[in-house]
Automatic annotation (TrEMBL):
Keywords from the named record: ATP-binding, Cytoplasm, Helicase, Hydrolase, Nucleotide-binding
Protein name: DEAD-box ATP-dependent RNA helicase RhpA
Biased composition (Basic residues): 387-397, 413-424
Domain DEAD-box RNA helicase Q: residue ranges: 1-29
Length: 424
C-alpha cells in the first residue's frame, strides 16, 4: 500500500517523500483513512510505529481542505505529556505542512511563556501543547479553544500516569462539544478505555500490536551484578563494545547525574536529562546525542518519554523500572521501524522481583548472564527500592489541591498549582 492510496493530497505526498518515506506503516494504513472520514479513533500502537504521522497527516489534509476562518483560530489541538514529546510532534507538523498554508505552534513549561504568547497572537491552525502550560495560558486568556475542530490525546496512558486527568477534563470543558477526537496510547488499559468513553464519540478501535509486546528486532539480555558494580560494568560494556550511541535509564534524577559524571571521568562523553534540568539543557543534550557529539544520554523515564532517536542501537536499563510496563516503553527506544537494537538490563539482587514482573507481563523469559569479573555476591542492598503498583506509581500532579466541588483554595494554593504546571 502507498501513501497515495490512503487518500492524501499531492502536497502531503510531496512532504512525505521529502522526509524519505515510501510506504505507510500498519498504524498509518489503519488510522489515516478513518481520520480522513471524520471518525473518532482510539488507537493503540507501540512506540516507533509512526503513530505521530498517523494523525498528523490526515489532520493537515482536513484543515487544508476546509475554509480558513479569519484570524486563524486554533482548529486542532494535540496534547502531549512531556516537553520533549510536544516538541517532537510539532516538528512532524512543521515537516509535513511544508507545502501547505498551515500555521502551527508548540507550548510547554520550563521556558519563558512570552514568545509562545506572541506566536499565538498572530493565529495558528494547529497547537501542540502540554496540559500544564496550556492551562496557564488559558487562564491568562492568551488563547481560546472555542472554535476547535479536532482534539488529539497523544500517549494518553502516560498522561494518566503523570496525574493529568483533572487537567485534561478542564481543558475539554473549554471546547465545543462537536469535534473529532483522536486518542493514541501504548496500551488499552481499563483506565484508558474509561477515559475514552467520556471523550470519544462512537470511536473505532485500531490496534497494530498486542499489548505490552516488544519489537522482535530488539535483542533483550539481563546481566546479574551487584548494585555497587553497575557503573564499572556499564563502562566496560560501552568501552569493550565501542558503542557510539547508548541511551541509559535510571530511576532517579540523582542517579542519572552521578552515572553521567562517572562516565565522563572514564572518558565516555555523556549528558543527563531529567525533570530538574532546564528545557534548554535538555534540548542541547538531546541534540548533541543525536549528532554524535556525545556517546551516552542518561535519562529518567519521564524525561525520555517521546524522544525520537532514529536507529538507536543500544539501550541500557541501569536500574529496572519499578512499573513493569515502563520496561516496554524504555526498550521501545531501540529496534524501531524494523531496525536491529539491543536492550541490556543490569539486575542486582533487589531487582530480581522486577524481572519476574516484566517476564510475566511479556509472557517470555529474559536471557540472563553473568559477566566475568562482575559475579554478584547476592548481598541485598540496605536501600532496597519498593515495587509499585502502576496505578499508584506516581503521585498525581494535582494531589493536595482539593476537590473541585469544595470552596476555592487560597491564593497561595493557586500559585503553587500554577507553578507545578509550569514545570511540565
Amino acid at each position: 500500500m502507498s501513501f497515495k492510496s490512503l487518500g492524501l493530497n499531492d502536497a502531503l505526498l510531496k512532504a512525505v517523500r521529502k522526509q524519505g518515506y515510501e510506504n505507510p506503516s500498519p498504524i498509518q494504513e489503519k488510522a489515516i483513512p478513518l481520520i480522513l472520514e471524520g471518525k473518532d479513533v482510539l488507537a493503540s500502537a507501540q512506540t516507533g510505529t509512526g503513530k505521530t504521522a498517523g494523525f498528523t497527516l490526515p489532520i493537515l489534509q482536513i484543515l487544508s481542505e476546509t475554509k480558513k476562518p479569519n484570524k486563524r483560530p486554533i482548529r486542532a489541538l494535540i496534547l502531549a505529556p512531556t516537553r520533549e514529546l510536544a516538541a517532537q510532534v510539532h516538528k512532524n507538523v512543521v515537516d509535513y505542512s511544508k507545502f501547505l498554508d498551515i500555521k502551527s505552534a508548540v507550548i510547554f513549561g520550563g521556558v519563558n511563556a512570552k514568545p509562545q504568547i506572541r506566536a499565538l497572537k498572530y493565529g495558528v491552525d494547529i497547537l501542540v501543547a502540554t496540559p500544564g502550560r496550556l492551562l496557564d495560558l488559558l487562564d491568562q486568556r492568551a488563547l481560546s479553544l472555542g472554535r476547535l475542530d479536532i482534539l488529539v490525546l497523544d500517549e494518553a496512558d502516560r498522561m494518566l500516569d503523570m496525574g493529568f486527568l483533572r487537567d485534561i477534563k478542564k481543558i475539554i470543558s473549554l471546547m465545543p462539544e462537536r469535534r473529532q477526537n483522536l486518542m493514541f496510547s501504548a496500551t488499552f488499559s481499563k483506565e484508558i478505555k474509561k477515559l475514552a468513553e467520556g471523550i470519544l464519540h462512537r470511536p473505532i478501535s485500531v490496534e497494530t500490536a498486542p499489548q505490552n509486546t516488544t519489537a522482535e528486532t530488539v535483542d533483550q539480555k539481563a546481566y546479574r551484578v551487584d548494585r555497587e558494580s553497575k557503573i564499572e560494568l556499564t563502562i566496560k560494556l560501552i568501552s569493550d563494545g565501542n558503542w557510539k550511541q547508548v541511551l541509559i535509564f535510571t530511576r532517579t534524577k540523582h542517579r542519572a547525574n552521578k552515572l553521567s559524571e562517572k562516565l565522563v571521568k572514564a572518558g565516555i562523553t555523556s549528558a543527563a536529562i531529567h525533570g530538574n534540568k532546564s528545557q534548554g539543557a535538555r534540548t542541547k543534550a538531546l541534540d548533541y546525542f543525536k549528532s554524535g557529539k556525545i556517546r551516552v544520554l542518561v535519562a529518567t523515564d519521564i524525561a525520555a518519554r517521546g524522544l525520537d532517536i532514529p536507529l538507536l542501537p543500544h539501550v541500557i536499563n541501569f536500574e529496572l523500572p519499578n512499573v513493569p510496563e515502563d520496561y516496554v516503553h524504555r526498550i521501545g527506544r531501540t529496534g524501531r521501524a524494523g531496525a536491529d537494537g539491543q536492550a541490556i538490563s543490569l539486575v542486582d539482587i533487589d531487582e530480581v522481583e522486577y524481572v519476574r514482573s516484566i517476564e510475566k507481563l511479556l509472557g517470555q523469559k529474559l536471557e540472563t548472564e553473568v559477566v566475568e569479573g562482575f559475579e554478584p555476591t547476592n548481598k541485598p542492598s540496605e536501600n532496597k527500592p519498593k515495587q509499585q503498583n502502576r496505578r499508584t506509581s506516581r503521585k498525581p500532579r494535582s494531589q493536595g489541591q482539593g476537590n473541585s466541588n469544595k470552596t476555592k483554595s487560597s491564593s497561595g494554593s493557586k500559585k503553587r498549582s500554577s507553578n507545578n504546571r509550569r514545570r511540565r
